[in-house]
Amino acid sequence: MFSLLRRVPNQPGSSRATADPNIGQDNQDESSQPEPAMEPQQQDSSRRTTAVKTVQSWGFDWLEWEAEKEVVLQVWCKVCQELYKDTVSPINPGQIQVCDLDAYVGGTRTVKKCNAVSHAKSRTHAEAVKVMCPVGESPLERHFRQRDEEKHPRMLKLFDIAYTVAYSKQSFQMYVTIAKLEAKHQVDIGKQYLNDKSCSMFIRYISASFLDELKAEMTGEPVYCSLLFDGSTDKTLTEREVISMMYLRNGKPTTKLLGICKPASGTADSIYSSILEKANEVGLDLEKSCVAMAADGASVNFGSQRGVLTKMQQDMPWLMKFHCIAHKLELALKDAFKDSYYTQIDDLMMHFYYMYHRSAKKWKQLESIAEVLSQDVLKPVRAQGTRWIPHRRAALRVLDRDYIALVAQFEDAGSGLRKDIPPADAAKMKGYLRRLRSLEFVLHFAFYRDLVDDLAELSTSLQAETLPLCSLRTTIQAVTMELEAKLTTPGERVTSVLEEVTEENQWAFREQHLTRSSTTLEKFKKVSAEVLGKVLDCMKTRFADVLDHPILLAADIMDMSNLPREVSLLNNYGNDQVVELADHFRDILMSNGCDMGAIPREWTRLKIDLQRRWCLNPGESFTPIWQAIMTQKVDRFPNITQLFNIMLVFPFATALVERQFSYLKRFLGDWRLGLGHDTLEDLLRICSDGPEIEAFDAEPAVNKWWGDANRRGTKRT
Length: 717
Hints:
The chain starts with 14 loop residues before the first strand and ends in a 10-residue tail after the last helix. By secondary structure, the chain is α+β, with helices and mostly antiparallel strands. The strands form three sheets. The protein has a five-stranded mixed beta sheet with strand order 7-6-5-8-9, sandwiched between helices.
């Protein structure tokens, strides 16, 4: 490329060289080579020197130098020298130059890599390269391309490490540790970007690539979504609102993090403004997209006059409001247990939890007793740590497993023979022993376990990220039937306890004699039946607005099990329900260009296809059927599919948002309270929306980082 440049002849006692060995040396006219503006002088011994091999390592093929005894005396740009050799005045008269043009044309004794880099990035040098090498790839471009190709695989590995740290909810210092381990294993990760600040920067670009993907999905065809949000105060005493959105992605309901916001206050107006702000950041027009919202039952959300959802429904009359159904189940159980014996069992489990978590001595004694009895014990867990019923089930399971060891310890501590136990503690242990050895406790404890086993399975199902309406109804009805059966037939554990304690009238449970009265059994049957009836009534009351809502009842036509098998019955199936659904969402459908008149006609053809598909695959579940319709039938049914798109993104639970707050709690440990708001959002987006570590593709994030020229100057709050 630079063959037209003439090589500078060697001077006596010194040598001139170029970083490009391909430049020819033959038939060169020495008289035509411009001499450097500064003559070589005796090198000052106190002045900083640069070795020839150092300049060669810079890799600039446009750079020439004069050297003596392997020390570079001065350097110049051979491209700019050839183009601007006859230029007398600066290129931009009257302006401050961005690079030392005259020095690199005539030669400079300031031999520094930073100056050479600045010259390479200057506009004048770029223009000189274009003029001197008008065709093909310039040596400079080739040089940077080769450097990029060499560096790119390293950046992919570093981004993978950063993603692993964020996804695993580890400290940024773990990035440095993993990088050192990779270097020990001879993995080529380079020697740059090996600190915690680089990890934070990479995490920022990974999160940004996820957000770009979300923004891209919000453009184009109509997007119908629902919002899930919840608020809480973290360890820094900052009020934060976590907002997620559910929408169809490839025909399947998907939930993604919209963002974290810090409302100016905890009022409905501030929260509403924060939600609108986050929606605008991703280009989401709520009045054309949002069809439903879900939150917990706080008054700031569901207040009849000034609640957040009430305000949004005033602006969007079609909006469906959902109180998290998993929370409703917890509230139903709480209402049913009020002033019952089962609150005493909850209190007892809480006392055990605090006793063994605050006293290492008591826990050690329990372990020693269990070892003597050849029993395995578990430390009591907190039954009321969250509102989820599975936590109660775990606490009950631990208490049942530790029963024999607990009785032995309380009997020893409450005997009055231990001088190392204060009288107050001995009396407390004696009270615990009296409770555990009563027939009343054993029976109610067994009933509690039977009840919670059924409700815990329901709670787990209701906490699913996506829950189809038909599955919701089926699951609730199945659990209700199982509970109703217990009104006449005792559960598995109650039956087992009754058989054990009444065997030969021993009234013993696990070799422990139980205290009782003549009315204990009758009283247990009466109380347990009353509590079970209250649970059923409270569930029916709490779930009424979901199970009996007219729009949700109309949406049952999407359940394939309701589809008639006879063609004669198919003609009128779902016609009224489709009209009802279309009327309710008319405004938002029309704002997205939906032809309302075409919906009934398309429904007639669609239900024929549905029946045909169901006959071919009678066991096919709800999700794959509608995923296929929303991806393969949109062109044939462009209007009715918009209506069913709305039905598929109804959010019935906010358990996902609760889990996101659990992530934030792990991020903001006692040693990480200084994490900024944006960094918390980046970490939460990676943990919530990112794939498993082995499935992560770092290419989009690396490309975004590579193309951001201002990344070094970017400041995060």
